[in-house]
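HUMAN: Please help interpret these tokens:
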Amino acid sequence: MGTYLYHAQPDLYEHDAVVLQARGDAVVLDRWALHPGGGGQVPDRAVLRFAGGSANVVDVLTEDGVHWLRLDAPAPLAPGDAVTVHVDRDWRHVLAQLHTATHILNALVYQRFAGALVTGAQINGDGTARMDFDLPQVDNDLLRALGDEINAVVRDGREVRAFYVSQEEARATHGLIRSMSVAPPPTDDGRVRIIDIAGLDRQACGGTHLANTAQSLPVAITKIENKGKQNRRVRIALVQP
């Protein structure tokens, strides 16, 4: 995998690139700063500008370890062509707010309910997200009450930072990996990316996040659902001003 460009330079929203492969409405570039999706988070969006036109990047497809940027229409591109990538800041910011909020929710559930693990997640570009937890017996009102605590963390303005540890340390450190089924893929040199919310939480994650919780809109818990005997689904949404 290497270190994604958006990991190394999270504030990089515009950069030049060269086409390596092209096929109608999809291209492979030598460098790109989009989050490719994964861990429940949808991919970034962007505009690709090139000589004679532009196209919208609407999805990222991974085939045999190669990331193809899917365009909204066929583009006259060939290997060696120069392009400029413009990442959609607004789309990224919505996803970063939601992903940071899900980490806060995850931390609070983990602390309040005996280390309950995540069984699924989905983070959408429409300002909504959901998390599923292994919580077979819990009062839904207790989960709803976490909404005020999430927003208290948002208001606190806590720093959010990323760093890397070895796979061995990630596996050996209790609580760094919270999902029952998946974990972020390691870098080529065997490291795992950790997201740290100051004074609250540390966990492995490959997604996009804020630099400070105060950069987020308030968050509302909109619905709690029972999904089978074990799973409890918590839906959240950004509260627009």
